Sequence to fold (301 residues):
Amino acid sequence: MWSERQAAMLRAMGLRLWQPPILDASAPPAEAAAAEAPAPVVEAVPVAGVALRSEPRPAVPPAAPVAPAAAPAVRPAAPSAAPVPAVRATAPAVAPVPAAPVDLGAVSGLDWQPLREAVAGCTACALSQSRTQTVFGVGHPQAHWMIVGEAPGEQEDLRGEPFVGAAGQLLDAMLRALALSRAADGDPAQRVYIANTLKCRPPRNRNPAPDELQRCEPFLVRQIELVKPRIILAMGRFAVQALLRSSEPIGKLRGRVHRYQGVPLVVTYHPAYLLRNLPDKARAWDDLCLAAAVAERTGGG
Fold:
């Protein structure tokens, strides 16, 4: 039993008190048995450092033990009869051998036909893997004029001839105005020999790479040695870079006479560029007139 003072403290803390029931002698046996049931367990809950009894909880009878279920019998798995897939042996990857530059010494002694065959079989750079055919050159082999272009385009790659299509037609019209032709026979003074700095077309007509120009240069050098031109007309930025070793724009190099191994050289725009920039046609005509004047002074026209 709680004392009156303890009961007052517990009620002030909001705790309900449990009082033992008063047994009535006249109560039925069932009620009397319930009244004689053991008192519920009271937990002590610390409050402000003092252990107090909380609200009583009814006692839970212990659960009856449950017998563990029998584990199902595990039948050992039969060995798989499926055949093990055979491992296919693959050949080890072989790194591509880097292309070697063309030997200038070996090319310098070649005549026209061996030189043409050397160009057709060249694999010095990756362009040999994407070309349709090489574009060697066209014109009179002893022409007084030599025209050097940049790289073959799609039509040149298909036909194996430099300066065809719309750009070639424009070039032929400009040459006819000076009584010149790319024909392989006739008077060398009225003939031109046309070659490109590259003998293979770059994919999608992209600009030539420096190493591609370097590897292909011996062929162009030998062509110039064989033609022995009186005047060279360099058409386009990459032709100028290959022959003059200059990165200056064409606008600053045109209008004056340069030299390539002692041969007069005049710089002008590429016909493909002129088709996109019509006002510069007049400047290109001035360049051809300058080259004609130089060729006449040197006995080449």
Q: What stands out?
A: Strands lie at 44-47, 50-53, 138-139, 145-149, 192-196, 231-235, 257-260, 263-268. The chain has eleven helices and eight strands. Confidence is low (pLDDT under 50) at residues 24-60, 76-82, 84-98.
